[in-house]
Amino acid sequence: MLIDERRSTDKLVDLERGLLSRRVFTDPDIYKVELERIFAKCWLFLAHDSMIPKAGDFMTTFMGEDHVIVTRGRDGKVHAMLNTCRHRGNRVCLFDSGNAAAFTCTYHGWSYDTAGKLIGVPFLKEAYYDELDKSEWGLVPVPRIESIGGMTFGSWDPSAPSLTEYLGELGWFMERLVLGTWNGGLEFVTGRHVYTARANWKIIAENFAGDHYHTSVTHASAYKLGLAPHPAGYEDVQDPNGPFEVALRPGHGAGGVYTGRPPFERDLAVAERLGPEVVAYAKERYARLTEVMRDAPCVPYRQGHGNMFPNLSWSGQANATGGRSFYLLQPKGPLHTEIWIWFAVERNAPQAVKDLVRGQSGQMGQLPSGFFAQDDAENFERVTESARTTVAKRYPFNISMQLGHEGQWPGQEKWEVAGIPGLVGPRYGEHSQRLFYSFWAKQTGLDTEA
Amino acid sequence: MTEPAGAEVQREVERFFHEEAVLIDERKLHLWLALFTDDAVYRMELRSKILQALLPNTLPTAGTQVLFEDDKRFLTLRVRRLETGMAHAEKPPSITRHLVTNIIADLDGPAVIARSNFHVYQARLEADDMHFFGKREDRLLRTDAGWRIARRSIVLDHIVVPRTLTTFF
Q1: What residues of B are in contact with residue A61 (Cβ under 8 Å)?
Q2: Distance from CA of A312 to the nearest CA of B (A)
Q3: Residue A224: closest CA among chain B residues belongs to which residue?
Q4: Residue A373 has pLDDT above 90, yes or no
Q5: Does the CB of A379 have a partner CB in chain B at under 8 Å?
Q6: What is the mean pLDDT of chain B?
Q7: Which residues lie closer than 8 Å to B26 by C-beta, 6 or more apart?
Q8: Phi first, then psi: what are they for B40, rounded to 5°?
Q9: Which residues of B touch A363 (CB under 8 A)?
């Protein structure tokens, strides 16, 4: 019935007209298709190396709605497996994180080692006559596990493309700006935060992927308090050094990209307040970044937000005095998302920088105590609500900003963004959202099967 | 070492917390800010289910990434933000009710260490009521103007925070 209703209407994602059906946010049938064709196929974030550094370290997370255990095995490798006993399905691990030699089910006591191998079955000899082949009954492993810059991802699809291929144009941004692999990579601050938004996961993901348009309105209170420079007119947001929003094939986005020396000099001003050690670090880091970016003459210096399809988002400065926050948008039905938040800093950053950015995340940032998260979350909830009700959901959302003008710069000659991969557009454009939803449509197959 | 405060100090601290709750719920937030010393710290942590070698009977806090670690300057900014008319998550203002209970006042030199539990009810637009539970440990100083909060350490008792934190605790 619901599927028929879908088929009787236009495409869910209409890229020619820049229209997006509201039903993608609320239809339970569409959500089930997402779980199968996106969350059980695409590469999903599992853990960063610094979360599970030692053998036996583990953390639990979700892939879609499936609960998984991610471990550092005795072999030093990252393993991931479903957190469900093969006998009657109970969880075998009840904790967020820790260190363990084995996971033992609390129902009948089957136990598994940190690589998921079944190692203990009570009364195996007497009750099973030793006929149970333990090698067949280990925890269900995530078949594909690959990593980039200390970040490990998993996919349930044995025939998935490699992680590098899946990242596509995002790989370049990941290594150089998001993960800072050339600067020792990231270290994650201990602790994970979780809050609930009564919102569909996509409205959050597309915001991180490429929505700079909302900032001056949604976050107006922060600008009003002087906590960030307020872009008043359009000319204020058109700076030849950015920020740029970049749509990254196949379905990712990275925005808030600033290039050249001016963003470095602003960073240096922050460094000066933190002392000479930080100034020296910022200068030395800039010299090395310039070298790393030698194939990108515009020298991208800062990167403010982004999303790796489907549900790993991030924000931050990605500069010498900034940190990064990562958000894993865990779907809990079409109308609910748990936002899992970790905070990370470049390993090589001076302690003064680490202390500064740790404090900022709870104040300005995307922790539930942060100004930005508070106003974002309420918007996401009301958008989702609007996509649920009978009449409102008949009217599509408008995703047409800059449609047909991609690569154009209003009132400007084309800016020098040489060497940056992907479709580079101005601060106000929905090219990243259109790519996000076109990849979504491709993965779900809902428009092509109709 | 702390020792139990006498009945008189205990009653004073209870009254102080009850009056403080009125200031928050009636949104007299500048009067509320005045209850903090100039060098006060307002801190909030979250719990986490971490498997430890010796499993304790309570869950530890999540780690070094805290939810709030505000000095008075930033706490004041949080109040001023609500006054901009642009803090959408408090537009219209939430209705809140702060219940502060289980108060235990102990003496620590010139200061009082006051432990308490809270239940904060928050009503927003429609049927989206929220409840927050947790505990506080305050370091209180007696001044000529009355009791003042020099440090507030809050632990929120939620594994998943039900909403962003736009009220005060």
Answers
A1: none
A2: 18
A3: B84
A4: no
A5: yes
A6: 90
A7: none
A8: -70, 155
A9: 70, 74
Helix (H) or strand (E) holding A363: helix A351-363
Q: Which helix (DSSP H) or strand (DSSP E) does residue A113 occupy?
A: strand A111-113
Q: What is the tens place of the pLDDT at every residue in B68-124?
A: 889 999 999 999 999 998 998 998 999 999 999 999 999 999 999 999 999 999 998
- Rounded-to-integer distance, Cα A11 and Cα A111, Å: 49
A246: nearest Cα among A284, A201, A296: A296
**Whole-number Å distance between alpha carbons of B158 and A233:** 42
Contact between A227 and B163 using a beta-carbon 8 Å cutoff? no
| Predicted model pTM | 0.94
Catalytic annotation, residues of A: 108, 211, 214, 219, 376
Question: How much is the pLDDT for A81?
Answer: 98
A224 at B interface, C-beta within 8 A = yes
Q: Which of A54, A57, A96, A356 to mutate to test the interface with B (most CBs of B within 10 A)?
A: A96
**Cα–Cα distance, A58 to A79 (Å, whole number):** 9
A330 burial type by CB count under 10 A (0-12 exposed, 13-18 middle, 19+ buried) = buried
Ordered DSSP codes for A383-444: HHHHTTSTTGGGSPEE--TTTT-TT--TTSPPP--TT--SEEE-SS--HHHHHHHHHHHHHH
Q: What is the 3-state secondary structure (H, E, C) of A269-285?
A: HHHHHHCHHHHHHHHHH
What are the pLDDT digits (tens) for A67-121? 999 999 999 999 999 999 999 999 999 988 899 999 999 999 999 999 999 999 9
